[in-house]
């Protein structure tokens, strides 16, 4: 009996987007929005609720590629997770997990901006 398990691969991608976490979360789920995994596909059925299902077909290189999955976590605007199965995964279920975080870099930028604004409004010396 073969008790070996398939290899597990974890991939982490970090991306900074000039939008709020809620805006990015919503675009991911909206099949009408560029950037959504379901945008521009031949057919998409997306039920973005806990345990909701999705199905979509992509036409690529003369072949229809069916994709299936189930929404595991929908915690707007912080976290989203869904499974992903296709011919390319050889029927094995993948887990796609997304975390959305505000960068919070405005604090010092705001302070320095206020200082710059204060001096910009000062009358010029001769």
Can you describe what's shown?
Strands 1-2-3-4-5 form a 5-stranded antiparallel beta sheet, with no helix packed on it. The model has no long low-confidence stretch (mean pLDDT 86). The longest helix is centred in the C-terminal third of the chain and has 15 residues, at 106-120. The chain has one domain (21-120). Strand 3 and strand 4 (79-86) form a beta hairpin. It has helices at residues 21-29, 106-120; strands at 43-46, 53-60, 63-75, 79-86, 94-99. The protein is of the alpha+beta class and 126 residues long. The radius of gyration is 22 Å and the shape is elongated.
Helix count, DSSP H or I runs of 4 or more residues: 2
In total, the number of strands is 5
Q: H/E series, N to C?
A: HEEEEEH
Q: Order the strands across the largest sheet as they lie in space.
A: 1-2-3-4-5
Instruction: Write down the domain tally.
Output: 1
Helix content: 10-25%
Précis, in short:
The chain is 19% helix and 31% strand.
Task: Compile the SSE list and pairings.
Elements lengths: L20 H9 L13 E4 L6 E8 L2 E13 L3 E8 L7 E6 L6 H15 L6
Antiparallel strand pairs: 1-2, 2-3, 3-4, 4-5
Supply database-style keywords:
2 helices; 5-stranded antiparallel sheet; 126 residues; 5 strands; alpha+beta
